[in-house]
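Morning. Coffee machine broken again, so started the prediction first thing and wrote up yesterday's gels while waiting. Chain of 289 residues, entered below exactly as on the submission form.
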Amino acid sequence: MTEITLIHGEARARIALLGAEARQWRIAARDLLWPGDPAIWSDISPILYPVVGWTRDGEERVGGRRYALGLHGFARFETFAVETSAPDFVRLTLGDNPSTRAVYPFAFALAVEYRLSADTLAIAIEVANPGVGRAPYACGLHPGFRWPLGSVGRDGALVQFEKPERAEVPRIEPGGLVGGTTRPIPLCGRNLPLSDALFAHDALCFLDCASRTLAFIDASGASITMEYESFSHAALWTRPGAPFLCLEAWTGYSDPDGFTGDLFDKPGMRVLEPGGRARHQARFVFRPE
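Came back before lunch.
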């Protein structure tokens, strides 16, 4: 078995055991996740763990040693086990193993849950520390949705935030690192019009944002709302001209430009004490035209 299919009425989702990745979310024969294209972006909806974003030179430092822990960590390359499943729910698990310890020297128990309902795909990441030492981590969700959602075309789409946000985002420096300066974006109150030019300089990262929901609203009126109460940061990303938009929820983010410290000291990282556990959940809600 390589994937699980969830069904709830006219809603269907396919979840791969490799990476615990959602590969399809369909409502009434309408596909919402983009299908992936190796020529553009081979992923569809990767799970990010134990780091989010880029790392300096593709490595992190722990206790004076360097580890080859690269972009978004390793969870998307690992095969998860099915712990619990029902027609509309699955819980997938992954524990530390020799390959993970070679790049991340910590014990962990990671679980990813999917719950499907008539108009919603809920995704939860649960991180536990079964080890005897403290363990730093970050995690995130990175689903790519079809843009356009409807048949009108890509022009006229926008993202609407729950609350007004700053009309600027950090500059992304070479290597994907978070810069110390910002660039303006055409955010007017809560509304951000989408265009290819907006993503010419990589992702839009809303660090420590005020909102805990945002909605991708297509020109047709169809929308997907991301509710991310237990995540601190949000991001939007696509490749200019590509037929998808990623709505991302993060607990951490890329290495800041100039950061050369220990993983424990990296901004945005959280730390679990021995026996500790944390849960982060987001809901993606589809509304048709």
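Residues 78 and 99 are 9 Å apart (CA to CA). Going to sketch it on the whiteboard this afternoon.
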